[in-house]
């Protein structure tokens, strides 16, 4: 494919539309990060056991929510990652 064909194809494609509306990102970041902090506090109050399955589940959930929350917060601030 040559340059002119690629340029014509590029100009004919629709603009990118995100799956999550940009207006929801601040609220989503707040909810996800609040849940992260809540789960981290809950994880620190759990009794220590020999097999930490419950601790691992809570910590993994908090980590995943925190990761998505930080990305939503960055996108809210205009740093699209």
Task: Give your account of this protein's structure.
The chain crosses the membrane at residues 20-44, 56-80. It comes from Candolleomyces aberdarensis. It is found in: Membrane. Keywords: Membrane, Transmembrane, Transmembrane helix. The longest helix is centred in the C-terminal third of the chain and has 24 residues, at 53-76. The chain has helices at 3-12, 25-45, 53-76. 68% of the residues lie in helices and 0% in strands. The relative contact order is 0.14. With 81 residues, the protein is mainly α. α2 packs antiparallel against α3.
Element-by-element helix/strand order = HHH
- Proportion of residues in extended strands: under 5%
Based on DSSP secondary structure assignment, what is the total number of beta strands?
0
What do the pLDDT scores average to?
Answer: 90
Shape type:
elongated
Q: What kind of sheet is the major sheet?
A: none
Low-confidence stretches: none
Would you tell me the structural class of the helices and strands? mainly alpha
Number of helices: 3
Rounded to the nearest angstrom, the distance between the terminal CA atoms is 30 Å
Any idea what the radius of gyration is?
20 Å
Helicity, as a percent range: 55-70%
């Amino acid at each position: 494919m040559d340059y002119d064909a690629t340029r014509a194809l590029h100009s004919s494609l629709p603009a990118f539309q995100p799956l999550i509306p940009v207006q929801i990102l601040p609220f989503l970041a707040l909810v996800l990060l609040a849940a992260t902090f809540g789960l981290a506090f809950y994880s620190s109050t759990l009794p220590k056991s020999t097999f930490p399955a419950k601790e691992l589940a809570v910590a993994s959930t908090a980590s995943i929510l925190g990761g998505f929350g930080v990305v939503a917060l960055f996108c809210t601030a205009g740093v699209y990652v």
